[in-house]
Each structure stands twice: as structure tokens, then as C-alpha cells.
Design goal:
Blueprint lengths: L3 H11 L2 H12 L5 H8 L8 E2 L7 E2 H12 L7 H13 L25 H22 L5 H11 L12 H13 L3 H14 L5 H13 L7 H13 L15 H12 L8
Antiparallel strand pairs: 1-2
């Protein structure tokens, strides 16, 4: 049985001001101080995207999606900074529906975002399209042309078994986009694959997958969400935290992401 009280205590004890603001909003919908938003929005380029590294002047698709995720945790997707970022993402899409990083970032981009890497192209397309889908749904708007082009590019890469090219994360982001754009059958095929993979997922992957799918309206009772919750139940540590895949300093982030699953209105149990 997941101990949400212990997880909350871990974030309070080990998190920074942004982490605690995210926790407060998650628990009670409290809006953060403007300075919290300012910390997240710092460094945004005039074009609307964020660079991958502080002080950089070339915006990154991957970094911009990360900042949108931080703002989303604080109900900030309607803020001017987020709207500019979403517009920038749409302008960065190629005519065939794909997203790739600027070639100037080839030497510094991590392998999952490196220009010219087909697996990175699929991941970035799924990630960028995910945020366009979330923003459109929140606004009650129809899918934009950019979102529909991205969904079509994703569909063309999913095979009959429900598998996808490249990284594990690309699967749940792609499934979320397809679910949101009403390609329910194709999304469900990916869900089946993800449900099996969830049995051995890391805590960070299980948490990210569940929160992404819940964010686009996948039912909390869907087997893929149930499988992710089970995996998180298995991987919570005695101090209430869940481990990051990268470094102990990011354990708070993973714990917050897992808490989003168990504190989501549709997953709470009496």
C-alpha cells in the first residue's frame, strides 16, 4: 500500500521552493508566488523556446517541453510564457509532421534529442505533440494542424503489434497523443505493450507514464494505469520516496511525479 503521507513528508524535507510549490498546488490547488513562476520561466529566448543550458541562445525542443511540464504542475499553461512556447513549438515542426532539434545543437544534445537520430526525432515529435494536445484540451479547442500532422507522423511509425521505434518514454507519449486525437484503437494497442513493460519499469518511468496518460484523460481503471500504480507500490522506499533514474538529487522530482498519480482526482480511493 503506497504511503502518500511519507512521500509528502519526503518532499517537504528535501525539496526546494519550486518542489514545495508544486506539492502545495498538487494537494490543494494553491497558486505559487510569482517568484516561483519567474524561476521556471528564466532564460526563455525571444523566440519562445528555452535553451538546453543556462545562458544559451538556441532554443531546444526537449528543454522547452521540460519547462512546459514544470509550468503545468503549477497550472501555468495559460501564462504568456507557456503560450509563446507552444507557438514556438508549432513553428519548429517540419512540414511532414516531425520535430528535431536545431542542427547547431548536434554536438551538445543528449542522445535522446540528437539531430539526425531517427529515435530522437520520434521522441521529440511525441513530446512536442503531447504538449500541444494537452494545451488544446485545456482550452477546449480542436486539435491544431500542427498537432494533427504530429499525430499522423506518429501513427505512421506504430506497427500492428503496438510497438514503436526508439525509447520507452516515446511509447507512452505517442499513446497519449493518439488517445487525445481520437485514434483510440491505435493508442490501445500501445497501452497493451506498455502494460506488460510496466512490470519491470523503474519508478521514474512508471510515474511519468501514468501521469502523462492521466493528463490526456485515460481512465484510472485502464489496465495500463493499474499496472503503473502496482509498480509504484512495489518500488516506494521506506522513507516515502521513489528513486530517480539519474541521480539522488532528482529523487524529489520522481517522488512528486509519483504523488501526482496517487493524488489525481480520478485515482483516489475511499
Amino acid at each position: 500500500m503506497v504511503d502518500t503521507d511519507a512521500a509528502i513528508g519526503y518532499v517537504v524535507a528535501h525539496g526546494d521552493a519550486v518542489d514545495r510549490a508544486r506539492l502545495s498546488h498538487l494537494r490543494s490547488g494553491v497558486s505559487p508566488a510569482e517568484e516561483i513562476y519567474a524561476r521556471i520561466e528564466a532564460g526563455q529566448t525571444p523566440s519562445g523556446g528555452w535553451p538546453a543550458q543556462g545562458g544559451g541562445d538556441i532554443a531546444s525542443v526537449d528543454a522547452t517541453c521540460f519547462r512546459l511540464a514544470e509550468l503545468d504542475d503549477l497550472a501555468g499553461l495559460r501564462r504568456p510564457s507557456a503560450q509563446r512556447a507552444l507557438q514556438w513549438l508549432a513553428t519548429r515542426q517540419s512540414l511532414d509532421g516531425w520535430w528535431e532539434e536545431d542542427p547547431a545543437l548536434a554536438a551538445s544534445a543528449p542522445h535522446w534529442a540528437r539531430p539526425g537520430n531517427p529515435d530522437a526525432r520520434f521522441y521529440l515529435t511525441a513530446n512536442a505533440a503531447f504538449w500541444l494536445a494537452v494545451a488544446a484540451a485545456d482550452a477546449g479547442a480542436e486539435p491544431s494542424p500542427a498537432l494533427l500532422r504530429g499525430a499522423r507522423a506518429i501513427l505512421d511509425q506504430i506497427d500492428e503489434s503496438g510497438t514503436w521505434p526508439g525509447f520507452l518514454v516515446s511509447g507512452w507519449l505517442a499513446a497519449a497523443v493518439l488517445h487525445r486525437t481520437e485514434s483510440f484503437y491505435e493508442a490501445a494497442r500501445i497501452f497493451v505493450v506498455l502494460g506488460e513493460r510496466a512490470k519491470t519499469m523503474t519508478a521514474a518511468d512508471a510515474a511519468w507514464m501514468a501521469t502523462a496518460l492521466l493528463r490526456v484523460g485515460v481512465s484510472a481503471d485502464d489496465p495500463v494505469i493499474v499496472a503503473a500504480r502496482t509498480r509504484l507500490d512495489e518500488t516506494q522506499r521506506p522513507d516515502g520516496s521513489w528513486p530517480s533514474d539519474d541521480a539522488p538529487a532528482l529523487d524529489v522530482h520522481t517522488t512528486l511525479t509519483a504523488l501526482k498519480v496517487f493524488l489525481h482526482p480520478s485515482t483516489r480511493r475511499p
